[in-house]
Automatic annotation (TrEMBL):
CDD domains assigned: Radical_SAM (cd01335)
GO BP: porphyrin-containing compound biosynthetic process
Entry keyword Cytoplasm: yes
Primary residence: cytoplasm
The protein, known as: Heme chaperone HemW
Family: Belongs to the anaerobic coproporphyrinogen-III oxidase family. HemW subfamily.
Cited InterPro entries: Coproporphyrinogen-III_oxidase (IPR034505), Elp3/MiaA/NifB-like_rSAM (IPR006638), HemN_C (IPR010723), HemW-like (IPR004559), rSAM (IPR007197), rSAM_horseshoe (IPR023404), rSAM_sf (IPR058240)
Keywords: 4Fe-4S, Chaperone, Cytoplasm, Heme, Iron, Iron-sulfur, Metal-binding, S-adenosyl-L-methionine
Length: 405
């Protein structure tokens, strides 16, 4: 949907913001995010640096243009809730200093159960955050121990109850499935517990430990039984069933919501609208380029303090092949899929027939659904989305193969 024109009659240029808070009290065994452990980081110095970076980004990316509107803000990490309510209030003020925010503007605060109190959430809501996402991961002590989280089922329950008690009316809960040795009945019990809180949003992520993580090393060394694909598939299907029966919309591979509560920030990313990331390791996308800010807190702080200069970043201009890959991959993740027009915008005219032929074949096998609007994954194929993606991308690249694009 096109944004409404502003008072000058021009359509606003909508952007999203992501702010990375790279601090955690501990390191989870499956974590590959940039996060720092340890006592006593100087959070105020970090907020000072974010304020400087935000000003530099606005200047260099021309974001103080009156046509710019901030449509969503996501404070992630790391563990943003370690900042406490006063600093969260300050962070909100820092971000408000700049382009106007849309009305409404979705402002998400990601929290870890261990640092949640009713006071903290109450303070954040009063400061202007309007969506809270609780990284529960599980309600079971044994799952949490396996994941290396210093939490417990009881702590997770209390954090969610405190978030609700503080007045949060847009609550998200994250769960993880596909753990080594995960018991199907216990997974269903975790799902029931999550749904009992009636969150507006529920994310169920498949555990996929990356190489540098402790969990990967344990699996590689044979000290943990590797998870079984069939078991993970059944857990995923159990999540689809439970969420569907509770009235949730399955709008993206890993995400479910009550009607009207899709996460705007996630949609901005999947629908390739511009977003700007602040903080070390944060990603940005402008429509024609992507970059990732240095994942080095010392470099990050030094440049902003001493220059001030924007922290080092790897910037990459997107080529036609990148647009094609991203549009197909991100489009397929969503239940709405891709329209034929969206496909035509990224696929060369000579490859269109290949894509249509492949799509008809995949529809015949039951992996996707096609109609005159476009194509989308069949619900039972969400779990194997990557295979469908590879099939369609190969067809889309047929015309360019050998041309060295
Ligand atoms: S809380 Fe999140 S960011 Fe921090 S270590 Fe655990 S998974 Fe990583």
């Amino acid at each position: 949907m096109m944004p409404a024109p502003d008072q000058t009659g021009a359509s606003p240029r909508e952007i999203s913001l992501y702010v990375h808070i790279p601090y955690c009290h501990y390191k989870c065994r499956y974590c590959s995010f940039y996060s720092l452990r340890g006592e006593g980081p100087d959070y105020d110095a970090y907020l000072d640096a974010l304020a400087v970076e935000w000003r530099l980004v606005r200047d260099e990316e021309c974001l103080d243009d009156p046509a710019v509107r901030v449509a969503s803000v996501y404070i992630g990490g790391g563990t943003p809730s370690v900042l406490g309510s006063e600093r969260l209030r300050r962070l909100h003020r820092i971000l408000r200093d700049g382009p106007a925010w849309g009305e409404p503007c979705e402002v998400t605060l990601e929290v870890n159960p261990e640092s949640v109190t009713e006071e903290l959430i109450g303070g954040a809501l009063a400061a202007g955050y309007n969506r809270v996402n609780v990284g529960a991961q599980s309600f079971r002590d044994d799952d949490l121990a396996l994941l290396g989280r210093e939490s417990s089922g009881e702590r997770v329950r209390r954090a969610i109850a405190d978030t609700r008690a503080a007045g949060c009316v847009n609550l998200g809960i994250d769960l993880v499935f596909g753990l080594p040795g995960m018991d199907p009945e216990k997974w269903r019990a975790s799902l029931r517990e999550a749904l009992r809180f009636a969150p507006e949003h529920l994310s169920c992520y498949l555990l996929a430990p990356e190489e540098e993580t402790i969990l990967h090393q344990l699996l590689h060394a044979g000290r943990l039984e590797p998870p079984i694909d069939e078991a993970a598939f059944l857990q995923y299907e159990a999540a689809r069933l439970a969420a569907g029966q509770a009235g949730y919309e399955h709008y993206e591979i890993s995400n479910f919501c009550k009607p009207g509560f899709r996460c705007r920030h996630h949609l901005d990313i999947w629908q390739r609208r511009p977003y700007y990331g602040l903080g070390p390791s944060a990603h940005s996308y402008t429509g024609d380029a992507r970059w990732c800010t240095t994942a080095d807190i010392h470099d990050y702080l030094a440049r902003l303090r001493e220059g001030p200069l924007r922290p080092a970043r790897q910037r990459r201009r997107l080529e036609a092949a990148d647009h094609r890959r991203e549009a197909i991959l991100l489009g397929l993740r969503q239940a709405r899929g891709l329209t034929w027009d969206e496909i035509a915008a990224v696929v060369e005219a000579e490859a269109t027939a290949h894509v249509e032929r492949r799509a008809r074949f995949l529809a015949g096998t039951g992996f996707i659904e096609i109609d005159e609007q476009g194509l989308r994954l069949a619900p039972r194929a969400f779990f194997v989305a990557h295979h469908v993606f590879v099939e369609l991308l190969e067809a889309a690249e047929k015309a360019t193969a050998g041309r060295g694009e």
